[in-house]
Amino acid sequence: METTDAFVGLECVDCAATYDAADEPHQCPACGGMLDPSYDYDAIDLDREALESRPFDSQWRYAELLPFTRESAVTSDEGATALVDCPNLADELGVERLLIKDDGRNPTGSTADRGQSLALTAASQHGATDVVLASTGNSGQSAAAYAGRAGLESHTYVPSRSSFTNKAMVNVHGGEMNVVGGRFDDAVGAYEEGLAEHDDWYSVQSFVTPYRHEGAKTTLYEIIERLEWSVPDIVAYPTGVGVGLVGAYKAATELQELGLIDESPALYATQAEGCAPIVDAFENDRDVHEPVETPDTICGELEIADPPASRRVLEALSETDGGAVATADRDILEAAVQVAQHTGLEMAPSAAAAASGVWELAERDAFDGDETVVIVNTASGNKEGDVLRSHLMSQGI
Ligand SMILES: [Zn+2]
Hints:
The chain is an alpha/beta fold. It has 13 helices and 13 strands.
């Protein structure tokens, strides 16, 4: 494999067993735990000036902190997305500064492109011919795009409720799409059956491949670098499986390890009330979630009733003195509309849970007025413009 100098291999987050990335591409063979790329940080010579001197052109500008070299990457220049100041929303919320990290500007319109770039780079280097995953939609679209770029076949299992755009674009990218009746858990079941029937399929499922959450960490690198290394008080993520938050917590830890920052931002998980297992666990001081029996939310990307890495997500929230907020679907959709009308930015319904969650914090008087708050927009609004418009129509507009 063409790995970077400081990348030492994969470590199990549960039993701490270590593996050579060339041999063990997926979950821990000893205990089934999630594997995490590890690095020799002393071997990384990276300071603020070195980073600032590089063009802000893709997530691969942080290659020293990624497992693979830029030259070997399967990449469409994902990352390097805008961090947009929204002063009128800051006034409305009563904070010093509100910014939206617009990861909807990635090649396939979602933050999933960061992790799929790494996952497909790994698949390619491991000699895979076919990749497979279950997806709520966006990560499947992204996998199909990067598989196509790498010359690999892709097999995506999505629940029937997944958006038309996601399904259409999986096909457009030449991927095989399997629409599974039911919810995300049913799609996961079908994916597991498909994987069991095909020895040569290679999983790019979140927390099955070690590389999806690894790519996600670059979002927080970019936020902090764009703020000229001043750490925001709060970074709010819409949270389904929790890839973004697990990545963000690792990013904050690494930037401190390298001496680039002194503290972590408080990380917040935002969910929809109809499916909020992380928020429920956080509010009840549990270190792992309880599955939601009957999930029900219009926000398909958030309808993850049984998130596999909740322990890691909850650790990210508690270790950064963060929090978790759930809001109602109508408030989430209204937040997407308000952001669109006041800033011009387009948030997908699920992503707008982060905006709605921050508004809820303001309602609870959580802010003093001097905070810098970042909302992560994980997907472009035009992926589900129909859902946003139907909200307007329900308001009689
Ligand atoms: Zn293990």
